[in-house]
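Re: the 152-residue chain
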Amino acid sequence: MVYRYRMELDDHKMPTLVREAGYGGATLATPEELAVFLNQNEHLGSRAEEHFYAVALDTRLHALGVFEVSHGTVDYSTANPREVFIRLLLAGAVRFALAHNHPSGDCTPSEPDVKVTKLFSDAGKLMRLPLVDHIILGKNGAYCSMHEQGLM
């Protein structure tokens, strides 16, 4: 079972994971599997604004949890490694993937997309929590894998 989570503060102002929904189990060993999973469960390719997601993975690339990290505007969304890594560690991740959508439908990575991928990849290396891919989703199931494009 894969769970969608959100973060809340408990009574002591400590970040806590709260389960929102569950999906059938998923192995996300390829960029296509990750893109299909996020489109089927989160409808990421059809969103009108940019949404940035993190997916917590185990050693065999089974999804442990899915997190909406940020929800931005029609052409911009921000993501801070601190908030992402809190979620990943609380979910027990040993690897992770990132994904966001381009409402324009064009999956071509922008310069900020490449920079944020490097930022998360470098932070993951430092924490020994490797980033396996960053997927950009567009319309009608189109996607771009930063890993396949050699951009990470």
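The helical segments are 31-42, 81-90, 111-127.
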